[in-house]
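Appendix B. Worked example

We walk through a single record from start to finish. Start with the input: the chain for LutB/LldF family L-lactate oxidation iron-sulfur protein, Siccirubricoccus soli, length 477.
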Amino acid sequence: MQITSPAFKQNAARALEDAGLQKALGTAKGAFLQRRAAAVANLPEFERLRDIARDIKNHTLANLDHYLETFAANVEKAGGQVHWCSTADEAREAVLAICRRANARTVTKGKSMISEELGINRHLERHGIQPVETDLGEYILQLRDEPPSHIIAPAFHLNREDWEADFRRMHTDLPKDRVFAERRDILAEARTRLRERFLAADVGITGANFLIAETGSSVIVTNEGNGDLTQTLPRIHIALASIEKVVPTLEDCTSLLRLLARSATGQDFSVYTTFSTGSRRPGDLDGPEEYHVVLVDNGRSNMIGTEFQEMLRCIRCAACMNHCPVYGAVGGHAYGWVYPGPMGSVLTPSLVGVEKTGNLPNASTFCGRCESVCPVKIPLPKMMRHWREREFERHLTPSAARWGLGAWAWFARRPGLYRFATRAAIGALGLLGRGKGAFRSLPLAGNWTKGRDLPVPEPGGTFMSRYAAAQRRGARR
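Next comes the structure step. The output line below is what the pipeline stores for this chain.
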């Protein structure tokens, strides 16, 4: 996938002017917040669970090599195969090789963000293999040839009329009087089209929410059941997962599952939570003949031991982006790669380099809501600040910003001169703006005034002088 993160500002400007996108964002984002709040309120031990989950992930990351080796050994003990892939190229080739050995022509896929990161669909198509997305949102995006805009609701940016228009455009045999008035109408149409694809698939590819070292199992959660069909109907199941998805035990996994759906969709549990362990055994009613786990690093091990290691605790619930005012205003495509919102603003620079993604850590108000709702307590604002520091150290920020920050730092290190300069600036702005109330344009403040007015300073001096005066008045009382 082309990385367009350097164009974040232009992408965001277009998103703000896109009436359809703004309608979709306004309709969808509130529901996630309300449902999560209700789910949390109904679970008194939620905060304690967050601490437990954080500690589970920290322990796992501190011993990641041990748990990955244990997981791989137990996969093989259960009749599966593990493919260790350091890079995206290795992972793509591993998936392709499995499909070729099976003479696969059709591959069904359950939703997997790591497959988006790796560009699996394009790679298979280039080699004559047709991937079919089976998640409802991913299916419509495949028809539109678009990437996801959200990690749990991939078609977050679309309205119902967009779905209907795309079905009519791509499903050319639809009767003209077919009505798509409700969500169930859309579901019925997609289900009808996908049923034959499920039955025809030679290989099924799913992601993994968790990998359990103790049993060699992969775990997926869905609300549509497509994940189960993808991994049980085809002859071969490929679980595609990044290395940080491993957890030590079943008990650890269930603790994390209690947080995942509540944080993501406000459910106690997703409708389907499926544990897969190995290939079909004698006496099993269904299941694949072969079970493969493609374990992907792709830059994650480079985060271990750095100030960004805590990002690897992420369980992909999307609570951070659901609560982010920036994501809520511009949507996911503005971020320009697979992972949007606050988690993407930290993870994307870690995986592809801050040189290509420097705008993302700056796409934050630092309100702290992302950290306050994260089920594993990832300090996202702190890590975005670290990336801003890296960007500044490497002289990647615009020269005007660097000059301005340098000038401010020079004054800030000289408190007397700083107070004099701020008093002078406020006094000058007060005189220039007398009788106006606000400036519609102002030299050196064009980026502010092109989108909003700049209020004229009120009489009474700087904040520091007004604060000192208030303190004096309080002391006299």
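Two observations about the output. The longest helix spans residues 19-41. The two ends are 66 Å apart (CA to CA).
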